[in-house]
Amino acid sequence: MLRQQIPLDQFIANLPLFKEFKREDLQRIAAGAIRVHAPRGKTVFRRGEPCAGIFAVLFGHVKLALHAAQGAERVIDLIGPGQTAGEAAVFLDKPYVATAEALEDSALVLISKATVLAEVDRHPAFARRIIKSLSRRVFRRS
Q1: Collapsed DSSP state (helix, strand, coil) of residue 139
Q2: Which residues contact 137 (CB under 8 A, 6 or more apart)?
Q3: Do 65 and 98 contact (CB within 8 A), yes or no?
Q4: pLDDT of residue 141
Q5: 3-class state of residue 81 by DSSP
Q6: What order do you get walking across the sheet with 73-79 strand by strand?
Q7: Quick one: CA torsion of 124, 111, 57, 63, rounded to 10 degrees?
Q8: Which residues pair with 74 in a beta bridge?
């Protein structure tokens, strides 16, 4: 299926984390982002891998899961278009805490860790939105 390529700054502008950013800010963030194609079954990132940044789903769905040594899997979240993963690892300066796998052919945008941290320094309101987003996830999982 052919999907229209939207400019990265337009996609990023529609993510809740980046609402109210100015055009020049969005262009700067887009310059620190790349598209990632993830066919069904592809691992986007693994638990324990160094954090590259925040992944945002452009289309498709991604499963975030923990795997036990015995092979058991515990799904901790399913994310779809416009949703993000990896924020906690960025701010804790730790490896990813879960494994992300594409449940269907998907496209994601990876916003580099350095880009995210630079924007936090520039925009305190952005930092508050990320804290709010992470807090919602904690309460949802409780």
Answers
A1: helix
A2: 77
A3: yes
A4: 61
A5: coil
A6: 43-45, 99-102, 62-67, 73-79
A7: -100
A8: 66
Place of tokens 């940044």: 53
> Which pairs with CB-CB distance under 8 Å and at least 24 residues apart come from 91-95?
91/130, 91/134, 93/51, 94/51, 95/47, 95/48, 95/49, 95/50, 95/51
Average pLDDT across each block of 10 residues of the chain; the chain has 142 residues. List them in order. Answer: 73 85 90 96 96 96 89 90 92 93 97 94 84 75 59
CA distance 78 to 112: 21
Residue with tokens 């809740």: 16
CA 103 – CA 105 distance, rounded (Å)? 7
- The pTM score is 0.88
